[in-house]
Amino acid sequence: MVTPHTGVRAEPGSFRDPANRVFHLGDDVLRGLDERAAREWRALAAAEFFPPLLAAGKVCGTEPVEPARVPTAARWAAVLRHERIPFVSHPYEWSFAMLRDAALLHLEILRAALPAGFTTKDGSAYNLQWRGTEPVFIDVGSFTPARDGEPWAGYRQFCQTLLYPLLLGAHLGLDFQPWLRARVDGIEPDQMRRLFGGTRRLLPGVLTHVHLHDAMQRRNARASTADVRSQLRAAGYSQELALATVRGIEKLVRRLEHRPAASHWVDYQRTCAYTADDRATKERFVAEALAEPPRPRLALDLGANDGRYARLAARQADYVVAVEQDPAVVDGLYRALRDEGERRILPLVMDLADPSPGGGWRGVERASFAGRARADVVLALAVVHHLAIGRNVPLTEVLDWLVGLAAPGARIVVEFVHPEDPMARRLLANKPEGIFPDYRRAEFERLLETRCRIARRLDLPSGTRTLYAAVVGG
Q1: C-alpha count within 13 angstroms, C-beta hemisphere, residue 339
Q2: How far does the chain reach from its first CA to its final CA, in angstroms?
Q3: Above 50 in pLDDT, residue 221?
Q4: Which residues pair with 456 in a beta bridge?
Q5: Residue 440 to residues 250, 278, 419, 448, Cα–Cα distance (Å)
Q6: 38, 163, 210, 287: most buried by Cβ count inside 10 Å?
Q7: Are the CB atoms for 128 and 104 separated by under 8 Å?
Q8: What is the pTM of this model?
Q9: Residues facing 469 on adjacent strands
Q10: Which pLDDT does position 44 carry in this prediction?
């Protein structure tokens, strides 16, 4: 919602904590704090543990601004300005290693905060974002003074959105992404308990954080939060025990590992139908298209596979989002980019025929992929035929979707695989004869020209694939 006459836009995902709200003013990301939250912020900023986290980039860049300079700041006691994250993603778009690294950062921050007398009100995976392969904690408003005898308020959220998905992958070999996408609050302990019965309850972390957690929740279902806190204080629960618990969870998370089974896509660059000439010609075409001015702020690489073209894009663009359907491929790409120290490529897990929709409250609390993507360059290489033939999406719909991901005047670099190409023939062999009469190069070009200006086109040496560089609305 945009406030009239001020240009201030409320952040749809920031409403659950009335003490502080995030909003946008131009390119600024601002957070308004009420009186209590403002006092807690001042104490936090003065605490010894917090500035080093800011300096290391583990907590998003934050500085106070004068409330009088912000049009809607009259009701806030203080206003903070945060760094802008290059591209907001959701936990169900992350790979296993990404989720684990995000969980470890959250625990590291909490482990630093507790001895200094602070804790976090929340434990949600949504409190973390990415600078490429570097996780960053963004919910500065979550820090609050810790009270002796009170448990970590964010424990349940941490379990449901971080620990439980990791347990699914590490112990059962399941992809967690569909589970997190289905419920914005994550996986309930009761669901986990049913999956981890019998001898599975003896797997690391399950007995304590699944079965005991579920039993405690059912036992305290009718008790108030104050009653539970009173019981814990009476039992001698202390911040030392809280810190020991965090260290125990951190040790558990570090031990969790999931190496997905190899799939067709893991080795796609070697097994696909490109000749060496095709590959070299394609890379030159893409590199030249990316080098055209102006310099892109955001580039999308759709169907990124091992990141070959995302890396090309990162040489020219400020930031690249590399989208790939296979969680195993994304996990491998993330680990490689992390080891390289790459901070300008964000790999994400997403089925392009079923991209992330809006979710949460009113369907806008978590923005859809299309709502977040306004790219200056869209790479759609070896993608169109998989959508049009493999997933039965009409060409006109595919192109409308690609254009919808781009900003006005953006560049689209797209590859059309002819019907006679070996890969297209393989896909068509699994379909009824004659089902795709419009899947032709001439029709693809006609549809592309109604949406874009085709600046360049090039047939690959094999003669069965054509590359296009087009300008949206040009």
Answers
A1: 7
A2: 31
A3: yes
A4: 469
A5: 54, 20, 7, 12
A6: 163
A7: no
A8: 0.94
A9: 413, 456
A10: 97
